[in-house]
Amino acid sequence: MVHLVRPRPSPALLLHAPPPPLSSTLPLPLLPPPALASLLLAAIDSSTSLRHLRSLHALLVRLPLQPHSLPYLLSRLLRRLAALPPPHAPLPYALSVFSAHSPPDTFLAAALLRFAFLTQLPLSPFRLFSRLLGSARGELPFLPFAFSPLAKSAAAARSLCAAEAAHAVSILVGGFDKHRFVENSLIGAYVACGDVSAARKVFDEMVVKDVISWTSIVVAYSRSGDMGSAEEVFAQCPVKDLVAWTAMVTGYAQNSMPMKALEVFERMATLGMGIDEVLLTGAISACAQLGAVKRAAWVKETAERNGFGNNVVVGSGLVDMFAKCGLIDEAHNVFDGMQEKNVYTYSSMIVGLAAHGRATEAIALFKDMVRRADVVPNHVTFIGLLTACSHAGMVRDGRYYFAQMKDKYGILPSPDHYTCMVDLLGRAGLVDEAFDLVRSMSVEPHGGVWGALLGACRIHGNTEVAKVAAEHLFKLEPESIGNYVLLSNTLASAGKWDEVSKVRKLMRSRRLKKDPAVSWFEGRDGLVHQFFAGDNSHPRTNEIKKALLELVAKLKHAGYVPILSSIVYDVSDGEKERLLMGHSEKLALLFGLLTLGSRCTIRIVKNLRICEDCHLFMRLVSRVEHVEIIVRDNMRFHHFKDGECACGGFW
Question: Rounded to whole angstroms, how far apart are CA atoms 574 and 562?
Fold first, then answer.
């Protein structure tokens, strides 16, 4: 009896032992060819070292194998070589494996190209393909699978020219332009390179489409931000796999459509579909954007129910989500309960504390991170740290950590870090120093830097520096209407109405329209209500406005005087007060009071910066109505309680 393999050792031994030698009671040349091929195949598939595979290669070319077995075994050898951990086998050696069979074999050619894609530099498969094509002189008919490494190589390199080249050779050399495997690879390459129209053209010309084809186009549209087309294709998908569903959730989340992202996520849950880390991250991002507390709690429960309770990526996302929902203490609870923490976890917590104005805690956590946990900070960590200093007016600490970032941790300041420093100095009234910092930057200032400087000028009434900052912004971000509005407001506050007219005329000539102010409030039932400035569309508008008038009268009796300078239009004081009463956050607040009552917590999310009058209004309401109000604007969180705000006047 011939024993082809030894008994399998225990898994623990396999981790440390070298691959077993070939074993048989007969010399290898005397084994029947099928048994010999089977024995060699098992040895190749179980090999874990280049040295052992070289020995097997030598056996393959010396032993009497059947003609059809050798190319198959050599191709499996190439696949195993590609699967070895770095350092990989050199390409010349892989070429020697390919050359061990004459004439050139199509399966071997496909395996060789795959090896080049997995182990060599990007676009190496193209050079290898050209070499094979030239040396074969037409004697090597390529299989469809040979073109996949070319398309994947183009995708990995994000090279549209390479994707088009892969498309061309698949037609001219292989004639496989209507082969589904090749077409799917080409769609993937075009999607990776950002050419959605080319991907769609390949898709539309396919004779037979499978789930990969449909899903790839959904992914293409969602990545490009064309969620309308993504919806259309997704609706037509005969079979919707997890990747397609994930593309819709993440696409909506990445394109600032959190409500739709959560609607799709809830549909998946209703259908009982499985979820993965990427999908959960998309749903978590949507909750963070929306600031919806009840939905956030449901997403956390879903993550834990599906076994992601100890996942560091999901956990870091949950920390960020709860912080952005105004639940900074819950974010801290998630953080403290995580078994594994990395730099992203710490950075999420530090950024969250910064947004809530808890600078001292953010700095303490940073010190714990680098000293006790021995986690090396990254550029995001310092953005959070500098933001914390900015929101608390801690100029000295901000300067210290800005210097430490480069001197101790070797992180060169990016424009985002400079933005934090300009914001810190500007908020503290050091506008000229902030301007000097911008002019001395080691990198080119981006819109964020000039925007922070313009914002500081708005706060402190520095119209001259404001005009310089705005001039740069109009060049860098000509379509961003917020910059024009900020300059206009700065000039209006200084009474320079002629210059205000020029800015507004420029806005009209460029056909720019101001983004409408909008606020969101999550009701007791988890339904999110939306309010626009001066909005009359809500079903309870009349009730809200009546309650608002009554509350304003009550506040005025307690000393409230509207801050009319928050309205920069050249209109009467009465009109200014009317406009102030229509601000979206006030409407959301009144709806919250009507539905939740006194002695409750009302959470509001606003897309723009809260104005001075609304800030004062919220402070007084928190004292008079005995409620806690949490407002998240586009800059930070404001916690109003007993007539005070946690921001301390820095926002």
Answer: 11
Tell me if 422 sits within 8 A of 389, measured CB to CB. Answer: no
Closest CA to 438 of 467, 456, 462, 418: 418
The pLDDT assigned to 16 comes to 39
The DSSP letter of residue 22 is: P
Q: If you write DSSP's letter for every residue of 502-560 in order, what string do you get?
A: HHHHHHHHTT--PPPPEEEEE-TTSPEEEEETT---STTHHHHHHHHHHHHHHHHHTT-
Angstrom distance (rounded) from CA 481 to CA 511? 10
Task: Identify the DSSP state of 601.
Answer: E
Q: Whole-number mean pLDDT of the chain?
A: 88
Give the whole-angstrom CA distance, residue 8 versus residue 137.
Answer: 46
pLDDT of residue 568: 65
Strand order in the sheet with 637-641: 528-532, 518-522, 601-606, 628-632, 637-641, 644-645
Contact 97, 72 (CB under 8 A): no
β-bridge pairing 601-606 and 518-522: antiparallel
Distance, CA of 338 to CA of 318 (rounded, Å): 11
Stated as kind and residue range, the H or E segment containing 247 is helix 242-254
Contact between 184 and 216 under an 8 Å Cβ cutoff? The reply is yes
Question: In this structure, are residues 387 and 375 in contact, taking their beta carbons and an 8 Å threshold?
Answer: no
Q: Cα(232)–Cα(236) distance, rounded to whole angstroms?
A: 7
Work out the number of other CB atoms within 10 angstroms of the CB of residue 601: 14
The rounded percent of the chain whose pLDDT value lies above 90 is 62
Let me know: does 255 contact 227? Beta carbons within 8 Å.
yes
Spatial distance between the Cα atoms of 133 and 264, rounded to a whole number of angstroms: 48
Question: Residue 511 — left, alpha, or beta (φ > 0 → left; ψ -120 to 50 → alpha)?
Answer: left
C-alpha of 74 from chain center: 42
pLDDT tens, 224-259?
999 999 999 999 999 899 999 999 999 999 998 998
Return the closest-CA partner of residue 34 out of 82, 74, 69: 69
Beta-carbon contacts of residue 460 (< 8 Å; ≥ 6 apart): 426, 429, 431
The length of the chain in residues reads 651
Interatomic CA distance for residues 23 and 633, integer angstroms: 72
3 state SS of 121:
coil
Interatomic CA distance for residues 232 and 251, integer angstroms: 14
For residue 177 the two structure tokens come to: 């332009």
pLDDT score of 30 more than 80:
no
Which amino acid would we find at residue 403? A
Contact 81, 54 (CB under 8 A): no
Residue 602, amino acid:
I
pTM score, whole prediction: 0.77
User: 3-class SS at 104?
Assistant: coil
Strands 637-641 and 644-645: what pairing? antiparallel
DSSP conformation letters of 625-640: TT-EEEEE-SS-EEEE
